[in-house]
User: Which sequence fits this backbone?
């Protein structure tokens, strides 16, 4: 995730949540690219996004997900968000490439269903989802979440 273009605000794969050193209601927009399934505490992370956005602010992101099912597929059950040693692996571990981690991989905690939209709504976001191709720009199979924080 990036806010204000500062790389120090980008979560690393070892993160349990994203806690930016930003004042509440201090930014107009925040972007995230395919990272939300790699943080353990998604609710806390999304709550931090809502906290730092100004009313009416925009959160624009992509994340691997399925639009044909409501339920998020949980790969790792978080028992205690402060203690990764208590995590329970309910499915075979799945790792994705991560140039920022020592072993160059990041654990995938989940694959989202449409209940992600519901969570975003609970946190005060309106959600618009788009799956549009822009072949003239070389952009294909784009799945984008455009979320606006309530005023």
Assistant:
């Amino acid at each position: 995730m990036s806010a204000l273009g500062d790389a120090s605000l980008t979560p690393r794969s070892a993160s349990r949540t994203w806690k930016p050193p930003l004042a509440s209601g201090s930014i107009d927009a925040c972007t995230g690219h395919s990272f939300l399934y790699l943080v353990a505490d998604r609710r806390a992370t999304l709550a931090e996004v809502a906290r730092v956005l100004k009313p009416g602010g925009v959160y624009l992101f992509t994340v691997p997900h399925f639009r044909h099912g409501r339920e998020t597929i949980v790969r790792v059950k978080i028992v205690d968000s402060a203690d990764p040693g208590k995590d329970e692996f309910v499915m075979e571990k799945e790792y994705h490439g991560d140039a920022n981690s020592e072993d160059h991989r990041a654990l995938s905690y989940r694959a989202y269903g449409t209940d992600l939209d519901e969570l975003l709504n609970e946190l005060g976001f309106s959600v618009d989802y788009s799956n549009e191709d822009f072949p003239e720009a070389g952009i294909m199979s784009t799945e984008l979440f455009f979320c606006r924080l309530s005023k």
